[in-house]
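To: structure desk
From: M.T.
Subject: fold request, one chain
Message: Could you run this one when you get a chance? Sequence is below, nothing fancy, just the single chain.
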Amino acid sequence: MFGCPSILLTTPDTCKRGLTDDDAFEPGWPISAEALMGKKSFIVIPSEEHKRLRKITSAPVNGLEALTVYMKYIEANVKSALNMWTTMGEIEFLTELRRLTFRVIIQIFLSEEDEHVVKSLEREYTAFNGGIRAMAIDLPGFAYHKALRARKNLVAKFQEVVNERRKRRRENQPIVKKDMMDLLVDVQDENGRKLDDEEIIDILLMYLNAGHESSGHIIMWATILLQEHPEIFRKAKEEQEKILKNRPLTQEGLTLKEYRQMEYMSKVIDETLRFVNISWVVFRKAKTDVKMNGYLIPTGWRVLLWFRHVHMDPKNYPDPKEFDPSRWDGPPPKAGMFIPFGGGSHLCPGNDLAKLEIAIFLHHFLLGYKVERSNPKCPLRHLPHTRPMDNCLARIIKVENP
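Reply: Done. Structure tokens follow.
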């Protein structure tokens, strides 16, 4: 598979080891993914460097200060988009969600609000993303070739921004609006070492891929699944109404405290992540001969952690094809059983930001909107992500609550 002899790991215990045993396994993504994501990307760099970059970038991505700032970007864009969609008639709901999440992530990264610039970057990113899992054929007409060209253009744009931010600091110019680029330029490790330009750019490209594509699909499926299960919808909406009712009259917008009160919403999101399986596989490679469950994995063989099988195995989740947030009422699942964001040292570093974005959208959707699909029984396409073939053609309708 992917041009290399491969082993599939499909149980919680084997996936747990594949994610956490850094002495036995290292990243093993296809050539196309490694080349496009960059030499300093988390999916390519060795374990020790990976740990350093993870540690140094955790606060700019998932820290309290960062998430508080990002909430304002996310909520403003969600409210604007929902209102606009009600006036547009029939839309491709998934396409519009992907545009929304892209706009949000670009504002979080670069504070970029110019619609022309955002659309230009989105076109480049679409071509870039199309080559991540493609065959590494660098010839005109092939997805990988288009993706390499798109990466070059995206890197050039990000380099311009890095240069401009470094110039500001040399000239002691005030920072009016702090975004993720500013945080990454300023952050340093315990030895005073800062990130270089290549590290910053490859980190941004990685988050662009994870924070935009996955979030848009999960938001679409969570919205659809809530509407298909009226009792779940009712419980989720009641929780959001309670948060609104208890809000001080002087407060504008959601807070992190309110987000952390969304206990049932968190279960809805976790169940959507399990049910939909956006990240259906992760790639590792054996650093040495590895014995596992009576089998030998030879050095250099690729190891594919098949998350979709783990999440849909009835041994792990009774009635796995049922959408049931109540399955999360008990104690958390054992290690390796719920892995939508990976695990161990390779846990997706943007997982908190992604769940925050999903929750904010669902908060506003539940309180005032509904989706009327044009083709509810539309066939599904499963690669690279499961989605309706019509990209969820629908109308977004404003609901007047009593």
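Reply (cont.): The chain has one domain: 6-398. Let me know if you need anything else for the meeting.
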